[in-house]
Write a structure and sequence with these properties.
Rossmann fold, about 350 residues, seven-stranded parallel beta sheet, alpha/beta, 13 helices, 2 domains, elongated
């Protein structure tokens, strides 16, 4: 069986697609990955046994009128290219992971009478998946908060196997508190500038690992030196699962994949939703985690004093130890569930 998976440009789309692809390969199927040629895709696909194709597509929402027109003009060309790929590879079905990159291949598959499936990572369904949900055989959703979509299957987020391994959840006797701070690729600035200032009161007890994003190391290191906090600052961590496991809790934005990975490793979070996320989906992602008792939300628009108090309370009240006692199983079996349902449908 040959399956096309389509995802592009952000880890929140690309890594779940790769997790599904890996499982399909493991079961003896062939995988064609359709992306945009972005660096995150090519890096993530190194060493994978996938065939890789690219089409030219950009986002639509939040763009100016010229960019929107350009995107619409690219769709028919990309549909034709996908039809060529589909015929060449003799593909049986497609799974789309959101974003405008999924529209042309889905239209191509519909034209050719082939089944499509979608997966939505967030608590609010994206524009592309909303369109495709009307034609999709199964719409897999990560959180049970999406309504008014037919043929849904609550699968969780397909997380990589390294985020489902056993973690050390022992409550350590020593006074040291370990915190992992990360702002993601889009939202690091607010976290970089404000979080270090909150640690001044606790500088004797903290060990920090802070992922600051490209070109920000000197600025963030300077803030930690000023308050005399023991902090390791890096642009990026290649193996974040080790840092999550090391930490007592995480300070993060609330991208769907990040919070799924962190909570699957029994770590709680102080979540700061990215205000510019489309449809405010990061806030609703965070509300779900708060609802299962594994995190606290801070709105970026609130005053610094509120942020400082929330973080201070987590440390003083040792809230992170209560979070460690939780075991979020929503995403652990997502890969298996999705591949089971897709292969079962195609084999009918």
């Amino acid at each position: 069986m040959k399956i096309l998976v389509s995802a592009a440009k952000t880890g929140g789309h690309v890594f779940p697609a790769i997790a599904i692809g890996d499982e399909l390969i493991k079961r003896g199927h062939q995988v064609i990955f359709l992306g945009s040629g972005a660096e995150i895709e090519t890096n993530a696909l190194k060493g994978k046994k996938f065939s890789y194709y690219q089409i030219s597509m950009t986002g639509f929402r939040g763009k100016n009128i010229l960019n929107k027109i350009s995107t619409l003009l690219l769709i028919p060309l990309s549909v034709l290219k996908t039809i060529q790929i589909l015929r060449k590879e003799r593909i049986d079905a497609m799974i789309g992971f959101g974003g405008f990159i999924t529209l042309p291949p889905a239209f191509a598959f519909l034209i050719m009478g082939k089944p499509i499936f979608t997966h939505e990572q967030n608590s609010v369904i994206g524009s592309a998946n909303k369109v495709l949900s009307k034609f999709s055989k199964i719409n897999f959703i990560a959180f049970p908060t999406i309504s008014n979509i037919k043929n849904t299957f609550v699968s969780g987020n397909p997380i990589r196997a390294v985020f489902t391994s056993n973690t050390d959840n022992k409550i350590r006797a020593e006074q040291e508190i370990r915190i992992y701070v990360t702002g993601g690729s889009q939202g690091a600035e607010y976290i970089n500038l404000n979080i270090p200032k909150c640690f001044k009161e606790f500088n004797k007890y903290l060990k920090i690992k802070h992922q600051c994003g490209k070109g920000k190391i000197d600025q963030v290191k300077s803030l930690y030196r000023h308050i005399k906090v023991d902090a390791e600052v890096k642009e990026f961590y290649d193996n974040p699962q080790f840092i999550i496991n090391w930490a007592d809790f995480v300070i993060t934005r609330s991208g769907a994949l990040s919070i799924s990975e962190i909570s699957s490793m029994s770590r709680g979070m102080l979540m700061i939703p990215l205000p510019s996320s489309i449809d405010n989906h990061q806030f609703f992602n965070a509300k779900h985690i708060e609802g299962i008792g594994m995190g606290i939300i801070h709105n970026q628009s609130d005053k610094f004093e509120i942020l400082n108090k929330k973080l201070s309370d987590i440390i003083k009240q040792k809230t992170y130890n209560k979070w460690k006692e939780k075991n979020n199983l929503e995403h652990i079996n997502a890969v298996t569930k999705i591949v089971d349902e897709v292969t079962k449908y195609i084999s009918k």
